[in-house]
Amino acid sequence: MTTFGARGYNKGPLTEIADQVGMTHAGVLHHFGSKDQLLLEVLRYRDESDVKDLEGQHIPGGVDLFRHLVRTALLNARRAGLVQAYVVLSAESVTEGHPARDWFVERYRTLRREVGEAFRAVCAERGIDEPATVDRAAASILAVMDGLQVQWLLDPEQVDLAESSAFAIEAIVAQVLDPREAL
Amino acid sequence: MTTFGARGYNKGPLTEIADQVGMTHAGVLHHFGSKDQLLLEVLRYRDESDVKDLEGQHIPGGVDLFRHLVRTALLNARRAGLVQAYVVLSAESVTEGHPARDWFVERYRTLRREVGEAFRAVCAERGIDEPATVDRAAASILAVMDGLQVQWLLDPEQVDLAESSAFAIEAIVAQVLDPREAL
DNA sequence: CTTAACTTACTACGCTGTAAGTAACATTGT
DNA sequence: ACAATGTTACTTACAGCGTAGTAAGTTAAG
User: Fold this and answer.
1) Which residues from chain A sit within 8 angstroms of residue B99, using beta carbons?
2) With an 8 Å Cβ cutoff, is B75 touching chain A?
3) Less Cβ crowding at N or C end of chain B, within 10 Å?
4) What is the C-alpha separation between B126 and B120, in angstroms, rounded?
5) Cβ proximity of A138 and A115 under 8 Å
6) What is the pLDDT of residues B94-138, one digit of tens each?
7) If we measure between CA atoms, which residue out of B108, B115, B181 comes closest to residue B146?
8) From 3.40.50, 1.20.1070, 1.10.357, 1.10.3470, which CATH number describes the A58-183 domain?
9) Å from A159 to nearest chain B CA?
10) In the predicted structure, residue A137 carries a pLDDT above the cut 90
């Protein structure tokens, strides 16, 4: 994660990764078979340990999911390395034949579904019949979080990741629950 | 742009670029000196020709800038290659020692400033005293456009770039002009 | 006569993946 | 109890490719 995050998958050599665990690059290949496979295992492992972190604690739904996303943005501002890994790898994954492409496609589908469901729950709770904008809003919330991360990594002095994320999420949620035309 | 977009800067070889213009890779280096320099020239050239496109036409300000951004998202849905180049290169640029890093830092600063000014113009026009959220909103609008592009490139069937962008921009503008708390 | 626009040929490096060897440990048969 | 036989976790060494950059030569135009 450290190497792929700092230098990207393509430019992140196995030798650097091997050094970090006190091994030669051939040793790493002994365990993972190929560099592609290592990347997928790293991503899978992150997912697993994220789930473990939430064990016992309920995975929030409804309005709590949005609060959770805001807290995540706040947390992310303290772990640039991990954020950078996701930013770099997700963008790289859109290129031809990238080994993590399918993983990111699936990941975004899952996240959009979860955020979409949270929207539907909130709408139901407040007696709003489900607006057509739910799917767009779900994608937008994930998008704004990702996009802010890029700007923040490039220019941390100028961009406040947590504040901007919170602002944008609030804006989008408000627009779903009670749409207005400003333009 | 085609090669760097499709394969990224790191994995985009000079030979492929040279082939596209019917030349050897040494011919390309004759003109640009190094691969780094070529990338910077490509980016500079894109900027220049964007300015040329707008020549005569006024660069929109105030509320028209937001409409222009929505139209841009619509236009972008028809040019995946260019979009992919920006997505891949901007994310790659956050890595250590990337040749385009400074360029992207500067680019986002400029864009945030322009969007921020548009916000201030609209606020002045409508007699709203400038809210503290302008800067966050400016970053958020750029962020949501970028982030949606990633999701759209990965899964064009599932994500409607134009609609989602329009929705999110509207949401953010509305929240600046007339803030509400939804959470 | 010079300069520009190349090409060919080469160097040199970085990288992934493979093959063969080694040391430690586990398992099994007697 | 102990040898024989894997098996695991590596290392060293190397093959082999892709690639950026360089140097020298070629052709055409000014």
Assistant:
1) none
2) no
3) C
4) 10
5) yes
6) 998 999 999 999 999 999 999 999 999 999 999 998 889 999 999
7) B108
8) 1.10.357
9) 7
10) yes
